């Protein structure tokens, strides 16, 4: 069963920032928070990941709550190419290090 | 360099037939995962290979499902006596190493349709 909770869908205007929330209230201390996105008819694509500190890369920023029970993926300026399903996942810090996916948030970008 | 390659991209089969799905991971990646994605759903973990260690088969839904990874590279997922509920996209991913800090690289998947 998925350990993360995300809204089913969100909308954003093009060129505007987007904040995608995720709850992971049962995350353990060694599990990383990973975000992936999936465009239609493609496999998921890595976006960003982190453990405790906020993270930035060329695609997005990841803000992690101090208690680690939630995180927010931030797209600074949404483009039409950012329309996808965004998955917030936990990557186990032990065992098979598998990613556990929920149903994700479908992001629509309005021109 | 080449990404994760899966073949075939589409497979249509009749109920009761066996199918084999192939995954070529990124060269040098030691970890390999299989996931299944049913229509409109999230990804369901199936199996994990890491180097020469015994695979983690905890996600396989029934004994009709099996997977091999030969020589630490190519992997084959086999579904015996396919059922209509097996229809889904089967995704393979690889990772440079084991660890919670390692990101996964996914292939484009095999769309399996069981008639």
Describe the structure.
The complex is a heterodimer of chains A (111) and B (115). By secondary structure, chain A is mainly beta. Chain A is built from no helices and ten strands. In chain A, the strands form two sheets. In chain A, strands 1, 3, 4, 8, 9 and 10 form a six-stranded mixed β-sheet that branches. In chain A, strands 2-7-6-5 form a four-stranded antiparallel β-sheet, with no helix packed on it. The mean pLDDT of chain A is 91. With 115 residues, chain B is an all-beta fold. Chain B is 0% helix and 46% strand. Chain B is built from no helices and ten strands. Chain B has strands spanning 5-7, 10-13, 19-24, 31-37, 43-50, 65-69, 75-79, 88-95, 105-106, 110-114. In chain B, the strands form two sheets. In chain B, strands 2, 4, 5, 8, 9 and 10 form a six-stranded mixed β-sheet that branches. A four-stranded antiparallel β-sheet of chain B has the order 1-3-7-6, with no helix packed on it. Chain B is globular and about 40 Å long. The model of chain B has no long low-confidence stretch (mean pLDDT 93). The interface between A and B is medium-sized, with 28 and 29 residues.
